[in-house]
Amino acid sequence: MNRARAWLLAYVAAVVAISFIHQPVALAAGLAVALTAAGAARWRLLQRAALALLLVNASVSLAYAGLAWWQGRPLGDALLLINLRVLLLVFLGFWLVDRVRLLDALAGWPVLSMIATLALGQIAVYRRLLDDFRLAFRSRNPAPPSAAAMLRHAGAQAGSLLDKSLHDAEQAAQAMRSRGAFDA
């Protein structure tokens, strides 16, 4: 077994194990172990994980807090458990991506390699598109943009990404249909 595959299998085992842990102290200890084991990259990976989770976890936490308040239930332990678990899982995911080339880990599994190749290709396309939007916005706003301008830009960007996703999905479905993928 190659090293990349060993890391991938260790990651999958860790994800399964973490989903069975329901003690915030154990999750915090797991996060501390992961931070220590990540070495010099720990703070960069932790920052990426926290930024990736900021909006989603904040909205989920606020919704859960509102529901707990409305039902008169305590919420501290549950929110801590949810946020620690998700932070640990996302940190481990970023650490895996930082350490391992996914295609090397999936070598020998042709179907998974093909799916990963397609996914990585799509990630590259959308990353380039987002970079183009960012650069276009920067070039059209020599002064710091207003909040309204940033919202308009984000809306245009989201609409464009949605249109591209729908178009690409329709094209893929038509290509698969023409090759008999949906025939019963």
Tell me what the structure shows:
With 184 residues, the chain is mainly α. The protein folds into two domains: 3-105, no CATH class; 110-178. Helix content is 83%, strand content 0%. The radius of gyration is 21 Å and the shape is globular. The mean pLDDT is 89.
Task: Give a short synopsis of this structure.
The chain has 184 residues and is an all-alpha fold.
Question: Which descriptors would you attach to this protein?
Answer:
184 residues; globular; 7 helices; mainly alpha
How are the secondary structure elements laid out?
Layout: H1 3-19, H2 24-38, H3 42-71, H4 76-99, H5 102-105, H6 110-140, H7 147-178
Helix pairs in contact: 1-4, 2-4, 3-4
Number of discrete helical segments: 7
* Residue runs with pLDDT of under 50 for 5 or more positions: none
**Spatial gap, N to C terminus:** 38 Å
**How does the helix and strand content classify structurally?**
mainly alpha
Which value, in Å, is the CA radius of gyration? Answer: 21 Å
Domains (count): 2
Q: Describe the biggest sheet? A: none
Strand content: under 5%
- Helix and strand element order: HHHHHHH
**What best-fitting shape do the alpha-carbon axes yield?**
globular
Query: Averaging pLDDT over every residue, what do you get?
Result: 89
- The amount of helix comes to over 70%
What's the count of strands? Answer: 0
